[in-house]
Write a structure and sequence with these properties.
This protein has 31 helices and nine strands. The termini are far apart. The protein is globular, with a radius of gyration of 30 Å. Among the domains are: 103 residues, Serine Threonine Protein Phosphatase 5, Tetratricopeptide repeat, CATH 1.25.40; 104 residues, no CATH class; 145 residues, Rossmann fold (3-Layer(aba) Sandwich). It is 58% helix and 6% strand. Strand 8 and strand 9 form a beta hairpin. It holds the Pfam family TPR_5. InterPro entries: TMTC_O-mannosyl-trnsfr, TPR-like_helical_dom_sf, TPR_5, TPR_rpt.
Length: 644
């Protein structure tokens, strides 16, 4: 009769031969004789997992570890089982425990990296990159690890390192189609569309018809000015099931003047599952408005229902925005305001249309209107950002504008901008887009390097696509930026009375911005009011007749500051001191933040960051230090670096 050890060896052979039922039966017989046999428990657990009985597998692997807690391979497989059950944090902990038990266990490093990379998020990508590097130290001949490391590095902003990692993958495996595709994306981000096209062609030669690669090849062709070729790539991507390509295809067709085809593609996008429905609504609305088909557009979007959702009206706000946009384009400002009155949304286009309608209505009541200029000489070097009003809202757009204008002024280009809220509120006169420019994807890194002198290969004639932002705010730019972003004199009667009312109450205006709302949904850093309360207790006695103003999207937080007699816009309105600027109250709050004597910003808030950058009066700026759970002084503008 075979011993337990001999039976275990036979079962392992059966398992390796994929004769799982026979192996399972033998493991069960072993466990009848030796119920605490850790190897049999562990290996039986792997069979249960292969046969999709994961809960049973989990119990068996844990039982094995109860008997032999130092089994690194079982601990790693525990992590894999937990991962398949969606228990991500527990899986990561198991992988880390396996690595502690056996630092040379390549599979644990690889599994931890894949898990964290799959989760996404800034901290996960950085940790995933570390894990991939450790796995590569154990096995430097694995091209898949270089490929996955390249993805993690790119997601974490280390683009040049990501490029090197994909090249390492290709050196080991020259036929690695996905590595060529990922390399192409990186080359496009680094401003090399020609190199990207070579990489995409190689990838498609190895794996023809890949929808994602065709889509990205379309991006590179469009960026290289090969619009007709981009049409073919985007169309091929859409046929391969990448329905997100439909809006890109429509964009290129519009640029080519093939408006009827663009409209047909957009209407198709509105009924295809997985497509960019909000983008298609925005683009079709703009296309119909451009042709003066306002009534047709209003009827269509009033009736539109998305056919692939339990709630067919899930894009109601986007449709109302399109209706309002076409009232606005027809010169019916009051009707546009009426459509969106009482509607609450966070979408960029919704915010833009609603706010511009409100601003134009305010001007109309003064018997005035804002006339956007055309470019007086479009033959001269120029740049544009047609997406300026499509990503983020007021502050995000303004911060994008700062980078664009710094770039334009550095190299003597004319900047063209679409209608955006900051373009109406601030005293700007940039001309409208003249069209005909090549798109520039992933422009933020390139533009930052150009305005700071890290590179010297400027390019005019490009439409620089969002998202964009400056990496640092240099003191040398302060005066210029503050001179650009000043409210138009037309708006001062709406915003100045708030500051006047506060100055009537005290000599030192302390303004705090407390952001909640979508920060909670998106899990951004939350500024705790207790940190500001503790800071105010120390500061308050040192100030000359201070008055505290709270700008917040969560009025419940104001009560936390009761001992300082806080004032909000609502309080001033109730006292009759000011009249709220209906629908544009955020500009009244912004004006206070921009002119306060002491300014406290909210963590990760571009809105209060922009106000701090534009504030010429404050003698003290403070921000939350989430790690230390306190408030600390800071400078919105940084000293210039000695070298680029």
């Amino acid at each position: 009769m075979a011993t337990v050890a001999e039976a275990l060896q036979i079962a392992v052979g059966l398992q390796r031969a994929d004769r799982l039922d026979e192996a399972r039966a033998l493991y069960l017989r072993i466990l009848e004789v030796d119920p605490r046999n850790a190897h049999a428990l562990h290996l039986l657990g792997l069979i249960e997992r292969r046969q999709n009985r994961r809960d049973k597998a989990l119990d068996l692997i844990r039982a094995a570890l109860d008997v032999a807690p130092e089994m690194a391979d079982a601990t790693c497989n525990l992590g894999s089982t937990l991962s398949e059950l969606g228990r991500i944090d527990a899986a990561a902990a198991a992988y880390r425990r396996a690595i502690q038990l056996d630092p040379s266990l390549e599979g644990a490093h690889q599994a931890l990296a894949s898990l964290l990379g799959g989760r996404g998020g800034p901290r996960d990508w950085a940790t995933a990159a570390v894990a991939y590097r450790r796995a590569l130290r154990l096995n430097p001949q694995r091209p898949e690890s270089y490929h996955d490391l390249g993805i993690a590095l790119r997601q974490n902003g280390a683009v040049e390192e990501a490029q090197a990692s994909q090249r390492n993958a290709l050196a080991l495996h020259p036929g690695f189609a996905s590595a060529y595709a990922k390399l192409g994306n990186i080359q496009l981000e680094l401003g090399d569309p020609s190199g990207a096209l070579i990489s995409f062609r190689r990838s498609l030669t190895l794996e023809p018809g890949q929808g994602g690669t065709l889509y990205n090849q379309g991006n590179a062709q469009h960026a290289a000015g090969l619009a007709d070729e981009a049409v073919d790539s985007y169309a091929g991507a859409a046929r391969a099931g990448v329905t997100l390509a439909l809006t890109r295809l429509a964009d290129v067709l519009t640029g080519l003047g093939r408006l009827a085809e663009a409209e047909q593609v957009l209407r198709l996008a509105l009924i295809r599952p997985g497509s960019d429905v909000p983008g298609a609504i925005d683009m079709l609305s703009a296309l119909l408005a451009r042709q003066g088909r306002h009534e047709e557009a209003r009827r269509f979007f009033a009736d539109y229902r998305y056919p692939h959702a339990a709630d067919p009206g899930m894009f109601r706000i986007e449709c109302l925005t399109a209706v309002a946009e076409n009232w606005l384009a027809a010169g019916e400002t009051d009707r546009a305001v009426e459509v969106l009155a009482g509607v609450h949304g966070h979408g960029s286009r919704f915010f833009t249309v609603k706010s511009i309608a409100g601003l134009q209505q305010s001007l109309a009541r003064q018997g005035r209107r804002l006339e956007r200029p055309a470019n007086p000489d479009p033959s001269q070097p120029r740049i544009c950002s047609s997406t300026l009003a499509t990503h983020g809202r007021f502050a995000h757009n303004a911060l994008e504008y700062v980078l664009l204008r710094l770039y334009a002024e550095t190299y003597g280009y004319r900047l063209e901008t679409p209608d955006w809220v900051g373009g109406h509120y601030f005293d700007l006169d940039d001309p409208r887009p003249g069209g005909g420019l090549k798109p520039m994807h992933f422009g933020r890194r390139i533009l930052n390097d150009l305005v700071t002198g890290r590179r010297d290969d400027p390019r005019p004639g490009v439409d620089i696509l969002s998202p964009l932002f400056l990496f640092d705010y240099r003191e040398e730019w302060r005066e210029r930026v503050q001179s650009w972003l000043r409210p138009r004199p037309d708006w001062l009667p709406y915003v100045d009375p708030v500051m006047q009312a506060l100055k009537a109450r005290g000599n030192t205006v302390v303004a705090l911005h407390i952001r909640r709302g979508d920060f909670v949904w998106f899990r951004y850093t939350i500024t705790e009011t207790s940190w500001y309360v503790d800071w105010l207790k120390a500061l308050w006695p040192t100030l000359d007749r201070p008055v505290l103003y709270i700008a917040t999207d969560d009025p419940a937080t104001i009560g936390d500051f009761a001992e300082f007699a806080p004032v909000s816009l609502d309080d001033l309105a109730k006292d009759g001191a000011v009249e709220p600027w209906k629908g544009l109250e955020f500009l009244q709050d912004f004006h206070v933040l921009m002119n306060a004597d002491v300014l406290g910003v909210s963590a990760q808030s571009g809105y209060s960051q922009l106000a701090a950058l534009l504030n010429r009066n404050a003698r003290l700026f403070v921000e939350p230090d989430a790690a230390a759970q306190r408030i600390r002084p800071y400078s919105p503008w940084t000293s210039s670096s000695g070298t680029p």
